[in-house]
Automatic annotation (TrEMBL):
Family statement drawn from the similarity comment of this UniProt entry: Belongs to the peptidase S66 family.
Protein name, entry field: LD-carboxypeptidase
Alphabetical list of InterPro entries matching this protein: Carboxypeptidase_A_C_sf, Class_I_gatase-like, LdcA_N, Peptidase_S66_N, Peptidase_S66C, S66_fam
Claim: Cell cycle is one of the keywords in the record: no
Pfam family for this entry, one: Peptidase_S66
CDD domains linked: Peptidase_S66 (cd07025)
Keyword Protease: yes
UniProt domain LD-carboxypeptidase N-terminal: residue ranges: 13-129
Annotated LD-carboxypeptidase C-terminal domain residues: 172-288
Assigned keywords, A-Z: Carboxypeptidase, Hydrolase, Protease, Serine protease
Length: 301
């Protein structure tokens, strides 16, 4: 796997949205954060653009991403929000320049599609992390600090308190994954996630329990759990009860989907659509240790 170069003071960082529209106030806050890190933010043409719920029409969003990928002065590209839209344009993007001059691509939620595409097609690491739109709920120092560490190549190690549904064990493997529904939508495309021999990260937001179960069942039938080495479960936010009740918690739904496999499972990792969204480096080797005392996640390299 190719690891993009770490950032240093003075580097230019692209800021775009290839998905939904983001309010300008949060972009201004993001600019301030990047400048505090001594980075130079470069706003794309999708910033401030609007076309329905999108940050501009498909052609504009594709062109914005393309220009950021092709510009050798841009050392990282930060998505401002999730929502929906990357799936509509990604097959039209030329990654030739990016292939030979990789840079960090950052985001989560709808950016899951970009993560799995870049790892599968280009064998390049990316960063699952907080975005400008998260600033609507206030500045979360621990979320932004872990993103800074990931971008600047500093050590990442996480300790997570024990969860009653955790499945103990030690394992290591390349980390992949993202939002469960987006991973499900990517099945059968060239951007489909390859989970074989990997540690899989899953999180979700705003779904009914039966829908979460359907996504997991679909991923299972596609063989996405069969050769997984470990499962890291992030935030499961606003997972609504069904009528009649589904009969399981969101965590129990996930555990049920992987019950026949013997890999370790860690619940409660603070990443995804919750209040805290700590950075994860997809495409790098991760050591996962789940015990009765809690879980430890260490990134190598």
């Amino acid at each position: 796997m190719i690891i993009p170069p770490s950032l240093k003071a003075g580097d230019q960082v692209g800021v775009i949205s290839t998905s939904s529209y983001t309010e300008p106030a949060y972009i201004e806050q993001l600019e301030g954060i990047l400048k505090e890190w001594k980075l130079e933010p470069v706003l794309g043409k999708t910033i401030g653009a609007r076309h329905g719920s999108f940050a501009g029409p498909d052609e504009l969003r594709k062109k914005d991403l393309q220009q950021m990928l092709d510009n050798p002065e841009i050392r990282a590209v930060l998505q401002t929000t999730g929502g929906y839209g990357i799936i509509r344009i990604i097959d039209q993007v030329d990654f030739s320049a990016f292939k030979y001059h990789p840079k960090w691509l950052v985001g989560y939620s709808d950016t899951t599609f970009l993560h799995s595409h870049v790892q599968g097609m280009l064998s390049t690491a990316t960063i699952h992390a907080t975005m400008a739109a998260d600033l609507e709920a206030g500045y979360q120092a621990q979320s932004w600090e872990t993103l800074r560490k990931a971008l600047f190549g500093e050590k990442l190690e996480y300790h997570v308190k024990a969860h009653p549904l955790n499945r103990k064990g030690k394992t290591e493997g390349m980390l992949v994954g993202g939002t469960t529904s987006v991973l499900c939508n990517a099945k059968g495309t060239i951007s489909e996630v390859n989970s074989n021999g990997k540690i899989l990260f899953l999180e979700e937001v705003g779904e009914h329990k039966f829908r979460l179960d359907s996504y997991l069942t679909s991923l299972k039938k596609a063989g996405k759990f069969e050769y997984v080495r470990g499962l890291l479960v992030g935030e499961l936010v606003e997972i609504e009860e069904d009528d009649p009740p589904f009969g399981k918690t969101p965590e129990e739904i996930i555990l049920d989907a992987v019950q026949e496999y013997d890999f370790p499972v860690c619940f409660g990792f603070p990443a995804g659509h919750g209040k805290v969204n700590k950075a994860l480096i997809f495409g790098t080797l991760v050591h996962l240790d789940v015990s009765e005392k809690g879980s430890v996640i260490r990134f190598s390299g």
